[in-house]
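Action item from last week, closing it out:
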Amino acid sequence: MLRKQGKHKIFIGMAPGVGKTYKMLQDANILKKQGIDVVIGLLETHNRQETLLQADGLEIIPRKFISQDNLTLTEMDTEAIINRHPQLVLIDELAHTNIPNSRYQKRYQDVEEILKAGIDVYSTVNIQHLESLNDLIAKITGVVVRERIPDRILDEADQVVVIDVTPETLEERLLAGKIYASNKIEQSLQNFFQRKNLIALRELALREVADTVEEEGEESIPFAQSYLIQERVLVCVSTYPNSLRLLRRGARLANYMNAPLFVLFVKNPDHFLSKTEALHIETCQQLCRDFEGTFLRVEDYNVASVIALIAEQEKITQIVIGESRQSRWKQLLRGSFTQKLMRLIWKKQIDLHIIATNH
């Protein structure tokens, strides 16, 4: 007999300290009083007293101990959770990267296995951990977030709840020592917790959940009302490192439009990829998979012609490319790559997005 897939509820916020874990525990306690079998699979309270009080009385699945390089480390015990098989398990910090040589690289992959076992999951994450927002978050805050989850995790969740507080309230919590220890407060206020950062992050969190709700509403729209325009996005990547930024921007565009994503790499037949370049393209391909896109690889000398041909074959409506790296002299003598591409697609009702990639 096949087990029914567990349901996933994600508590998302604009920054640490908004109350995601507190709210998750609060909801779990209500369910426990109603007779639901609830356990804590992984909890990170950061010694916040109010959160610790909410966790009091809930069963905790012990973490597993892993010895590595003369150190004893701990991780969530996914196998123990599945063997215990509660109705609901609470799992903090969805974007966490597991200890090297763990069964899964990321905690969200453990969550996927638990869901497949038929166990419901409540989890928490901050908006800055969403893969497609990585470049935008870095631009806003100056911080490159290393721990990320694919956008599909949010899309596939049965429920996404935004835990919203004003930037002023979050600053008050920080100053009161409710988020970090006193020696970290001033540094946080000068960096990630600057007012302008919090305002922008709050807007992103609210917009993300609004988009998710809007997409769920669109599922009930009759087909006859939605078939008129089917957007399809094509991102053109190369061996340049900025391709990852382009890919995320394109994925974000596809997500907003509820459109299929295609990623194209055109290799010059005479150019042998270095190890670094080959690894970079593999990274692009993996990122494309994370965004549930289709990766296309073609060998040809004429990049613009290939892009135009693929766009026609796949009925593309939006093309995303980076700024041309040609020198001014080459552009004057041969015409720019962008101009060539525009000439090839101008009659085909395709929008061309040229993304600045020099910062």
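Closing note: The two ends are 54 Å apart (CA to CA).
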